[in-house]
UniProtKB/TrEMBL annotation:
Entry protein name: Enoyl reductase (ER) domain-containing protein
Residues passing through the membrane, by range: none
A GO molecular-function descriptor: oxidoreductase activity
Cited Pfam families: ADH_N (PF08240), ADH_zinc_N_2 (PF13602)
Superkingdom of source: Eukaryota
UniProt cross-references to InterPro entries, sorted A to Z: ADH-like_N, Chloroplast_QOR, ER, GroES-like_sf, NAD(P)-bd_dom_sf
Ranges where the Enoyl reductase (ER) domain occurs: 38-316
Length: 318
């Protein structure tokens, strides 16, 4: 457990320029955990979860109610319901109160629940950036048709990527486990592969599509598996690139390869987060909830989240 001075158990704390204090309603951890503190029982301090070994500095995606605003805050006031991305250096979402910056905070409309909002920021922004910036998909449906493959399509980033991709002019192939095939189809995927079958492991499109872009959300897959399935200028967008991916990227740059592996480094932007929240409000994007757990058994929820087989998001409630 990592404690930091940006997560507090009291709403009274010196606020910096452009900062405000949030009373937490829900928080999403990079490990896959959501916390929904309620009126009956709340997490008053990150140390209360020390026995669960939960990394509070990983908890950056939150929804809450503004309690106090600091100097320089222009567009928010106490009582406003918001969705925010906390500092990736300090996190702080696993507490009753947390400090947030106006620059990465957007309003949460009543049509979007706290859990839906808290699950959205990093996963949704990653999917959005991969599709629009790296793959070149236009989410208004214009532009040339693109064949897209999304791996681990029932996971946190993947389930958003499927929905966002289908807003564009795309044919979407997705991979997931057999128990989630119907879910991924319901999110809009045109064809779904069970990753445990030979066809799924080979990433071969059932209809013979060659992929213009792959949004790779799963564990590492060798380039030799991707390469024969790509179009002449196809890209593999790796959202969690490791050393092997970075080496492949460097070699391809040096050899001027037309098929490329592209490492993705997320840069959260307020206007993109507001766009995603409005998609949820309008019913064009949804957060899939895997399961709900009582706060007293948060360790079980955390264990499930890091197991890597959750379908969407995991919620912890009192």
């Amino acid at each position: 457990m990592v404690m930091n001075n940006r997560s507090v158990h009291s709403p009274s704390q010196l606020l910096g320029f452009g900062e405000f204090n949030l009373r937490m309603l829900a928080a999403y951890s990079r490990g896959g955990l959501n916390i929904n503190p309620g009126q009956a029982q709340q997490v008053h301090h990150p140390l209360e979860l020390q026995q669960q070994h939960i990394q509070d500095n990983d908890t950056t995606d939150v929804a809450g109610v503004i309690q106090e605003v600091g100097p320089g805050v222009k567009n928010f006031k106490p009582g406003d319901q918001v969705v925010a991305v906390l500092s990736h250096l300090t996190g702080g979402g696993l507490a009753e109160y947390a400090m947030a910056k106006e620059s990465l905070t957007v309003p949460r409309p009543p049509e979007v629940s706290a859990a839906e909002g808290a699950g959205l920021p990093v996963a949704g922004l990653t999917a959005h950036m991969a599709l629009t910036q790296s793959a070149g998909v236009k989410l208004d449906g214009s532009g040339p048709r693109k064949n897209i493959l999304i791996t681990a399509a029932s996971g946190g980033v993947g389930h958003y990527a499927v929905q966002l991709a289908k807003l564009g002019n795309t044919h979407v192939t997705a991979t997931c486990g057999s128990r989630n095939i119907d879910l991924v189809k319901s999110l809009g995927a045109d064809e779904v592969l069970d990753y445990k079958t030979p066809e799924g492991a080979a990433l071969k499109s059932p209809s013979g599509q060659k992929y213009d872009a792959v949004v790779h959300c799963a564990t590492p897959i060798p380039w030799s598996v991707f390469e024969p399935n790509l179009s002449a200028t196809g890209k593999v967008i790796d959202i969690t690139p490791g050393p092997s991916a970075m080496w492949t990227f460097a070699v391809q740059k040096l050899t001027l390869s037309k098929k490329q592996l592209v490492p993705l480094l997320l840069i959260p932007k307020k206007e993109k987060l507001e766009y995603l929240v409005n998609l949820v409000k309008g019913g064009k994007l949804k957060t899939v909830i895997d399961s709900k757990h009582p706060l007293s058994r948060a360790e079980e929820a955390w264990a499930k989240s890091i197991d890597g087989h959750a379908t969407g998001k995991i919620i912890v409630e009192p």
